[in-house]
Amino acid sequence: MRLHYPLLLALSCLLAAPAAVRAATLPPATAASATPPAFLTDIEGAQALDWVHAQNAHTFGLLEHDPRYAGFAADALAIAQSTDRIPVPMVLGDQVYNFWQDAQHRHGIWRRTDLASYRTATPAWHTVLDLDALSAAEHVNWVWKGADCEEPDERRCVLLLSNGGEDATTAREFDLPDASFVPGGFLLPHSKQTTAWEGPNTLLVVRDWGPGTMTASGYGFVVKRLQRGQTLDQASEVARGMAADIADTPEVMVDGDGHREALIQRAVSFFESQYRQVTPHGLVPLPLPPKTVVVGLVQGRLVAKLNQAWQPATGPRVPSGSLAALDAAHPDAPPQLVFAPGPRQSVEAEAVGVTRSRIVAAIYDNVRGSAVSFAPGLNGTWTAHRLPLPDDVSVSLVDTDPRSDRAFLQVTGFLTPSQLWLTDAAQGSAAMVKALPAQFDAGGLVVEQLEATSNDGTRIPYFVVHRRDLKRDGSNPTELTAYGGFGVSMTPLYSGAIGRLWLARGGVYVLANIRGGGEFGPAWHEAGRKTHRQRVFDDFDAVGRDLIARGITSTRRLGIRGRSNGGLLMGVEFTQHPELWRAAIIGVPLLDMEHFETMAAGASWVDEYGSMSVPAEAAFLRSISPLQNLRPGVAYPEPFIFTSTKDDRVGPVHARRFAWRLTQLGVPFLYYEDTEGGHAGTANLAEIAHEQALEATYLARRLVD
What we know:
Mean pLDDT: 94
Strand content: 25-35%
CATH class of the largest domain: Alpha Beta
Radius of gyration: 25 Å
Helix content: 10-25%
CATH topology of the largest domain: Rossmann fold
Structural class: alpha+beta
CATH superfamily of the largest domain: Alpha/Beta hydrolase fold, catalytic domain
Number of strands: 39
């Protein structure tokens, strides 16, 4: 199975709430009044949406009437809808597919061309599916969520379509040559679900099959085999996990030699899984350690990214952070070490792919990327070849073709417009096939990589993008961002919105590589997990203090921004160090850490954050939870809080409760809840541009004025 999603690299910018529902003269909240009202948890209830619309109206009235907003909005929309964006390729059969949105295609079109045409400046695209037309015909706000295509032929796909952007989808079979939905084909109604093609007429499916089939996290744990022509209630069970799991997920991999492996991944926690092969004789466990992600199949070998050290029953120890290969036909044989990272190196599972005869991976060294192909050799050895790409950039894997040794890679940097490179992993060659035109004038800008010292002495690297003639007198408006969780690495990225709306107007942009991420391998993540998470927060404010000490900025000119787990980070920094920041953008956030396990998909993140059922972890969560640590009489900066009604992953209740508590404390804030978009926050390019313009206006009001 290769599940293709559109690559949407959209970065955003900020917002508050109306006087009618918020009085600055309210007395300090009592214990009783500190309990958020129940109506806020009724996601699409009339009273809740009335409250949301009132907050939005106040925010729009304030920010959209700022004289700078119109210019920000025009620039942001021009960048978002620019027709010279790189059309991100999906290789299916002998065609290149692309999902595309622009001013004429709000919902988007799925289109295709051949490789030769794709490589030209003006490819001859043929529309395969028009989501705008489909949405109009069916009166549904369809949002593209990807295509699961049957291998090796890749003639039939299951298209995943979401109503409004939520994670739950409707799955519909689609014929690629005919460019049409298959009459009487597979149709799986609305659910959080995953499919995998076991054969041209058979799907492995995990979804909501009815009572007792969903985990506490809101995902399925029963995998069934659905044959063509069967109804859902006729599907036969293949695997069953437990309600306490995160999810059970089927995956079918087919390599360039025709080997086929069907696997069931039972995620017992967010980072720990049990893999089982689906065989004619039942399920066979793979002898992999729990913190492993299987990322591909090449020449009959399963490729695994290890997030813990592994001492197999036979063979040498495999270090944490490594890539290893396992003989799928003889999984008990000694594994083969493909790549072991050094102390400042890392590779993420999402950055690994397979071609017909190679593994292709993006390898980072001190947060600088490269691309390497690995070829199997004699006696279980693998040979590494660095692909000829530019230096000092970020490298990401876009798509690989298992029928050839071609792979598409993206190269980008803060001041380097994104480039698409086509490589031949077997030949070791690479050629740039697309380049994004510059979206802002970077002539007077430079990038520095600096380090701050955290409370425990750990050196925390961070990037600073600023004008070459920067005066280090503390006068520079500065936006500081980070993520700090789930082993996710934050690397340099070209953003026209940040460039034109912030950097070109004299702002400084800072990206911090704090612990909790994966920039230096699994140990960097483990150092900030669960009750160690205060290190993440300490790392972040250490970078803020370092920026001030160097004269790059000052507390008067320093703002912070983060989304999702990064929104939690901003919420904690807002409550722990309100004196350090003058602006805080808190996007699609987790903020009620005492109750996150019972909200949306929150139970799935216990392995990252801890659980209220464990006394030591509960005490820590109470100590850092932004909602519960808001206090009367504290001089908080006015934050901009952003969420989405359709977010069924984190959910909008965190943000709503936080905003309500600020109302009780008489703290000014800006709040914006998009009524569609899901956890991405926005569903189309116009909404992305609108949010970016709001955020840019907020930052200008707080940090420039």
